[in-house]
């Protein structure tokens, strides 16, 4: 689960980590009231959306006059960042930045421990740093029985600073971040940038925190912060109907029974030059109503140009899937081509049922995948 920057900063502040002062606004009137209370004409306006890359998308602006402030507030509140509309902004004072740093804690599944990462190259281009200047990113594994010891915190802080006062500030922040991660079952805490001000203070002026969904039952105060977007609502709706759905960025919709077959289908699509639009596993049911609901879910995605139905009939009978497809297309009108591959239990019966329907029938997985990719390209 993700939370907004302003919510993340509230949590950091609870654990004694310095953050810059900000005020949440949802409309122009609130924003103007906040601006009138700022000590200077300068202000920073930041879109609050649950996605990265706000700065590069134009969702973070610094202004130095009321006229510019009004214009930027209006622009940001009416913008869309990677498909997400901006409904809230965070307005704050402009911090006097001397230098920027990167600091994060993340669960490392491979080593089964928490990974601490730091860099003196903080800011919007941290992804580029990881690719082109990997030596600038320092990593420390944290042993869970001991946590972040004073020694480890100071050793990490010395990678960023030579000044002992700054080392101590950074070490304290690192220790408190780890306390926060453990106490809230967070899977990621990222401060980017952690800035050194002209006044010599370390301040978190942006923050990102993700939580382990499986542990939210232990944290009702955090669970209530959840804000689902349209994709997440669709995934929850799919789960309620008995199948697993994950939205992707391609244009070939996949309806498959079984997670392993779903992964193999997506790999085959990539192999032949296509892009899967989703992961959709209808499970082992022979319920034709499930097929109808799954097809409706797929065709509701406007980016899909082709649907690939890949069914291995075991518990799921191919003739039931075929009837479900016919039922679906008796009520759904679409120009999207549908490629169907049925194999296994009652596959011959299933193919016969689909004869004469609005489907492109394939007998092998390779044939079906190639056909789906060709339909996109044409």
Automatic annotation (TrEMBL):
<dbReference type="InterPro" id="IPR011761">
    <property type="entry name" value="ATP-grasp"/>
</dbReference>
<dbReference type="InterPro" id="IPR017866">
    <property type="entry name" value="Succ-CoA_synthase_bsu_CS"/>
</dbReference>
<keyword id="KW-0460">Magnesium</keyword>
<dbReference type="GO" id="GO:0042709">
    <property type="term" value="C:succinate-CoA ligase complex"/>
</dbReference>
<feature type="binding site">
    <location>
        <position position="206"/>
    </location>
    <ligand>
        <name>Mg(2+)</name>
    </ligand>
</feature>
<dbReference type="Pfam" id="PF00549">
    <property type="entry name" value="Ligase_CoA"/>
</dbReference>
<feature type="binding site">
    <location>
        <position position="100"/>
    </location>
    <ligand>
        <name>ATP</name>
    </ligand>
</feature>
<dbReference type="Pfam" id="PF08442">
    <property type="entry name" value="ATP-grasp_2"/>
</dbReference>
<comment type="function">
    <text>Succinyl-CoA synthetase functions in the citric acid cycle (TCA), coupling the hydrolysis of succinyl-CoA to the synthesis of either ATP or GTP and thus represents the only step of substrate-level phosphorylation in the TCA. The beta subunit provides nucleotide specificity of the enzyme and binds the substrate succinate, while the binding sites for coenzyme A and phosphate are found in the alpha subunit.</text>
</comment>
<comment type="pathway">
    <text>Carbohydrate metabolism; tricarboxylic acid cycle; succinate from succinyl-CoA (ligase route): step 1/1.</text>
</comment>
<dbReference type="GO" id="GO:0000287">
    <property type="term" value="F:magnesium ion binding"/>
</dbReference>
<dbReference type="GO" id="GO:0004775">
    <property type="term" value="F:succinate-CoA ligase (ADP-forming) activity"/>
</dbReference>
<feature type="binding site">
    <location>
        <position position="46"/>
    </location>
    <ligand>
        <name>ATP</name>
    </ligand>
</feature>
<keyword id="KW-0436">Ligase</keyword>
<dbReference type="InterPro" id="IPR013815">
    <property type="entry name" value="ATP_grasp_subdomain_1"/>
</dbReference>
<protein>
    <recommendedName>
        <fullName>Succinate--CoA ligase [ADP-forming] subunit beta</fullName>
        <ecNumber>6.2.1.5</ecNumber>
    </recommendedName>
</protein>
<feature type="binding site">
    <location>
        <position position="257"/>
    </location>
    <ligand>
        <name>substrate</name>
    </ligand>
</feature>
<feature type="binding site">
    <location>
        <begin position="314"/>
        <end position="316"/>
    </location>
    <ligand>
        <name>substrate</name>
    </ligand>
</feature>
<feature type="binding site">
    <location>
        <begin position="53"/>
        <end position="55"/>
    </location>
    <ligand>
        <name>ATP</name>
    </ligand>
</feature>
<dbReference type="InterPro" id="IPR013650">
    <property type="entry name" value="ATP-grasp_succ-CoA_synth-type"/>
</dbReference>
<dbReference type="InterPro" id="IPR005809">
    <property type="entry name" value="Succ_CoA_ligase-like_bsu"/>
</dbReference>
<dbReference type="InterPro" id="IPR016102">
    <property type="entry name" value="Succinyl-CoA_synth-like"/>
</dbReference>
<comment type="subunit">
    <text>Heterotetramer of two alpha and two beta subunits.</text>
</comment>
<keyword id="KW-0816">Tricarboxylic acid cycle</keyword>
<dbReference type="GO" id="GO:0005829">
    <property type="term" value="C:cytosol"/>
</dbReference>
<keyword id="KW-0067">ATP-binding</keyword>
<dbReference type="GO" id="GO:0006104">
    <property type="term" value="P:succinyl-CoA metabolic process"/>
</dbReference>
<keyword id="KW-0547">Nucleotide-binding</keyword>
<feature type="domain" description="ATP-grasp">
    <location>
        <begin position="9"/>
        <end position="239"/>
    </location>
</feature>
<keyword id="KW-0479">Metal-binding</keyword>
<dbReference type="InterPro" id="IPR005811">
    <property type="entry name" value="SUCC_ACL_C"/>
</dbReference>
<dbReference type="GO" id="GO:0006099">
    <property type="term" value="P:tricarboxylic acid cycle"/>
</dbReference>
<comment type="similarity">
    <text>Belongs to the succinate/malate CoA ligase beta subunit family.</text>
</comment>
<feature type="binding site">
    <location>
        <position position="95"/>
    </location>
    <ligand>
        <name>ATP</name>
    </ligand>
</feature>
<dbReference type="GO" id="GO:0005524">
    <property type="term" value="F:ATP binding"/>
</dbReference>
<feature type="binding site">
    <location>
        <position position="192"/>
    </location>
    <ligand>
        <name>Mg(2+)</name>
    </ligand>
</feature>
């Amino acid at each position: 689960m993700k939370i907004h920057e302003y919510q993340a900063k509230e949590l950091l502040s609870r654990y004694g980590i310095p953050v810059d002062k900000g005020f949440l606004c949802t409309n122009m009137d609130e924003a103007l009231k906040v601006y009138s209370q700022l000590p200077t004409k300068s202000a920073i306006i930041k879109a609050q959306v649950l996605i990265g890359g706000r700065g590069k998308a134009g969702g973070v602006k610094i202004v130095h006059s009321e006229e510019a402030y009004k214009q930027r507030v209006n622009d940001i509140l009416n913008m869309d960042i990677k498909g997400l509309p901006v409904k809230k902004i965070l307005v704050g004072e402009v911090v006097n930045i001397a230098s920027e740093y990167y600091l994060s804690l993340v669960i490392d599944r491979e080593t089964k421990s928490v990974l601490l990462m730091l860099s003196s190259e903080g800011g919007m281009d941290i992804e580029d740093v990881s690719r082109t200047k990997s030596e600038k990113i320092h990593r420390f594994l944290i042993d869970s029985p001991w946590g972040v010891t004073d020694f480890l915190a100071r050793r990490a802080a010395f990678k960023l600073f030579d000044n002992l006062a700054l080392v101590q500030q950074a070490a304290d922040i690192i220790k408190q971040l780890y306390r926060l991660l453990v106490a809230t079952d967070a899977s990621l805490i990222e401060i980017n940038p952690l800035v050194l001000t002209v006044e010599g203070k370390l301040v978190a002026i942006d923050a990102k925190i993700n939580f382990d969904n499986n542990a939210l039952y232990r944290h009702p105060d955090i669970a209530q912060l959840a804000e689902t977007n349209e994709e997440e609502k669709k995934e929850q709706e799919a789960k309620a109907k008995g199948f697993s759905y994950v939205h992707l960025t391609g244009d070939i919709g996949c309806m498959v029974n079984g997670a392993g077959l779903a992964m193999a289908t997506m790999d085959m699509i990539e192999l032949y030059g296509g892009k899967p639009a989703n992961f959709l596993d209808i499970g082992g049911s022979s319920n034709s109503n499930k097929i109808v609901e799954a097809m409706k879910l797929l065709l509701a995605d406007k980016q899909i140009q082709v649907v690939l139905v890949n069914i291995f009939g075991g518990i799921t009978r191919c003739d039931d899937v075929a009837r479900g497809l016919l039922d679906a297309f008796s009520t759904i009108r679409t120009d999207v081509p549908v490629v169907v591959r049925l194999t296994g239990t009652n596959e011959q019966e299933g193919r016969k049922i689909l004869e004469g329907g609005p489907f492109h029938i394939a007998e092998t997985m390779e044939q079906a995948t190639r056909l789906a990719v060709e339909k996109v390209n044409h």
